[in-house]
Design brief:
Length: about 350
């Protein structure tokens, strides 16, 4: 908020203009309020818990040596000594063929702003993560480019940002070079605010003709290194394609989380399928193929016996369509993908 000291010369000597002292102060305060509304620049911070704990019980205090802290630990359903790095900050990955956005932030624009700067304290694991920000008005107008106008699917069905996006201030790519614990790099993107706006008369409220804008911060994982090559089991398509059954490795063979096989946890991977139904080509109807799927969990094949060696099932998105060209006994490539970890997001108005 812009600060402006009260001009005491106004109430000194002839500055009273024969007004009572209380009236003089009130007039000056009103002028200050109007000045601040026309010149203020707001800032807001969204924070996520980045400091996790490593203990034998969730009620124990954290250790004094924080260099070994890599995640929050709970004994519920987990093996002793389990550390879960997915609980540091806000941790997630994205589908290969889509961009995901955090819930929009409602923001009443100040009259003096011409851009919104967004600073993220974050890091990327396994592969880079792309960041893209934009905003909309309550009437549906866009500030900056919208994702659908600056993204496309490549020949493998993976979302790519165009050069229009990558050359703009709305875009940033977060690399993986500094991923030690507690090293969250500052990442900045900005949204241009260029349309004429009325004078700011204070906080815009929902329901008014000129309501707050909606700020979206979006992310897209990129493809990492090949983890391993496997095979879906014959007739391994289940639950309308949301579950896929691994046909090469057993659940016991796969590194599911840094812990043990007893807890599936999250499983940030991309699956690429290779084998189509004999006699059909994926190039004939590419909308029916979607060779890449986003795996968000690897769960036991038999939930009633999680320690058994029944085949693992991938929980994936988007699901495998019933009319897909992919064979049920298809080769699969398992790739790592970019995993974002966010400690905080700072949004601030700019006028330069």
């Amino acid at each position: 908020m812009t600060y402006r000291p009260i001009n005491i010369d106004y109430i000194d000597g002839d500055g009273f203009d024969e007004q009572p002292l209380a009236s003089a102060w009130g007039k000056q305060l009103g002028e200050n309020a109007d000045y601040n509304l026309q010149n203020r620049l707001k800032r807001h911070v969204i924070s996520y818990d980045q400091v996790a704990r490593y203990t034998s019980d969730i009620l124990d205090p954290p250790p004094s040596d924080e260099t070994t802290v890599t995640g929050f630990k709970s004994l519920t359903g987990l093996a002793t000594g389990y550390i879960d790095p997915d609980t540091i900050g806000l941790t997630f990955s994205t589908p290969p063929n889509d961009v995901i956005c955090l819930p929009p932030v409602l923001w009443p624009l100040s009259s003096h702003v011409n851009s919104i700067k967004i600073t993220l304290s974050m890091r990327a694991l396994h592969a880079p993560v792309e960041v893209f920000a934009f905003a909309t008005t309550t009437g549906g107008a866009f500030f900056g480019a919208q994702p659908s106008a600056v993204t496309y699917l490549d020949d493998d069905g993976v979302t790519q940002f165009s050069t229009v996006a990558t050359a703009s201030d709305q875009y940033a790519e977060v690399g993986t070079s500094s991923n030690a614990y507690s090293i969250f790099n500052p990442v900045q993107v900005s949204i241009p605010i260029s349309i004429p706006r009325p004078v700011d008369n204070g906080l815009a409220r929902l329901g008014e003709t000129r309501g707050p804008i909606r700020i979206f911060v979006c992310f897209h994982s990129t493809q990492g290194s090949l983890d391993y090559v496997g095979k879906l089991a014959a007739a391994g398509r289940q639950a309308d394609g949301t579950l896929m059954e691994e046909g090469t490795y057993t659940y016991d063979s796969l590194a599911v989380t840094p812990a043990t096989k007893y807890n599936p946890g999250s499983f940030h991977r991309w699956i690429q399928m290779e084998t189509t139904v004999p006699g059909l080509s994926p190039t004939l109807t590419p909308t029916y193929t979607d060779p890449f799927k986003h795996v968000i969990q690897l769960r036991p094949g038999d939930l009633s016996d999680p320690e058994g060696t029944d085949k693992a099932k991938y929980v994936c998105w988007p699901p495998l369509r019933p009319d897909s060209l992919w064979s049920e006994d298809t080769n699969i490539n398992i790739y790592e993908c970019g995993v974002a970890q966010i400690a905080s997001i700072t949004i601030e108005e700019q006028n330069a």
